[in-house]
Design the sequence.
């Protein structure tokens, strides 16, 4: 067996191993989609973090998204 035959057998062995291992590779992740999803999640969460929790006029506890105080009726001033 000469060196050329050994190299051919080695190359075919590498190709065979690569072909067999191919189905076990992990799938590619859609990075753009994952980044956009994370940005949307953070933006949705950031609006909740900056909304006031208590009325500045009477001190009544506010619910997320309230525009007026349920206790005194004053408009809620959002301090962003």
Sequence:
């Amino acid at each position: 067996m000469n060196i050329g035959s050994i190299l051919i057998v080695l190359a075919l062995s590498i190709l065979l191993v690569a072909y067999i291992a191919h189905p076990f590779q992990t799938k590619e992740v859609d990075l753009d989609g994952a980044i956009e999803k994370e940005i949307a999640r953070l933006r949705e969460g950031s609006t909740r973090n900056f909304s006031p929790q208590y009325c500045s006029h009477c001190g009544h506890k506010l619910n997320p998204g309230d525009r007026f105080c349920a206790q005194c009726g004053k408009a809620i001033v959002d301090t962003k």
